[in-house]
Amino acid sequence: MDIAGKLMEELESKTSFTIPLFGGIPVSSSVTVTWGIMLILMILTLIFVRNLKMVPDKPQIVLETIVGFIYNFFTDILGEHGKRYIPYLGTVLIYLACSNLTGLFGITPPTKDLNVTAALAIMSIILIEYSGIHSKGGKGYFKSFAEPMVLMTPINILELFIRPLSLCMRLFGNILGGFVVMELLKLIVPAVIPVPFSFYFDIFDGLIQAYVFVFLTSLFMQEKME
Amino acid sequence: MTALIAIGAGIAVMTGIGAGIGIGIATSKATESIARQPEASANINKALLLGCALAEATAIYGFVIGLLIILFLK
Q1: Is the pTM here over 0.95, yes or no?
Q2: ipTM score of complex
C-alpha cells in the first residue's frame, strides 16, 4: 500500500503558491512551470534573433533550419492560404515539445495537468472553426455542416465536441501514462534501469505527442478550409 | 470491493488489445509499402503517424477510464 500512497501523492496537481488577492487565488505548479518555459524561450529568442546577417553564421543556420522545418511542415498540410496560422501552430509545437521534455530534468511536465491540455484543445477547436469561417464566410461555414449530405448534420455538430475532447485526452493520457510508469519504475529500481525507459517515455513519446497534436490541429483546419 | 474495482480497471485497459492490433497492421503495411516504393516514404510516414495517433486514442481512453475507476471508486 505504501507504493500506492506515494503514487497518489505524485499524481495530484499541486499548488505552488497562492496570490493573496480576493481571499487567495491558488496558482498551480503547472502554471509556474509554464512561466519558466516561457521565460527560457523568450530569452533564447531574444539572444538568437540579434545580429541576423545575410550570410548566416553557425547559430543562425541552426535557427533557420528549425524555423524552415516548421514552415515547410505546416505549408505542406495547410497550403499557401493557410500561412497566416503558422506562427500560432509553431508556438504550440515548440511549447508542447519543451513542456513534455521537462520530465527529463525531474520537473513534473505541465501537460500532466488536465486543465492545461483542455485549454490547448479548446484554443485549437476555436482556431479550427475560425479558419473555416474566415475562408468560407459565415454562410458557407454553416452550409458546410450539411455536407456531404443533410443526414450527416448531427454527426458534424457532434464532431465539434469530440475533436477537442480527443485532442485533450490523447495528450493528457499519454503524458500521464508515461509519468505513472516512470514513477513506478523509480519506486522499484531507483538507479540505471529507468534511464532507457526515460529515453522512450520522456523524449520519444513526448516529441511524438507534440507533433501529433499540431499535426491533427492543422489537418482539421485544412479540412475546414477546403 | 477493492478486488472488484481492480478487475473493472483491468477490463477497461483491455482496449489496448484493439489499439495494439490496429497499430501493428498499420505499421506492417507501411513497412511493406516503403520497401516497394522508398521514394514515397515521406507521405507514407505522415499517413502512418496519423493512423497510429487515431488508433492509439482508443487505448488512451481505456487507460483514462481505468484511472478514473481506481481514483473515484473507493
Answers
A1: no
A2: 0.71
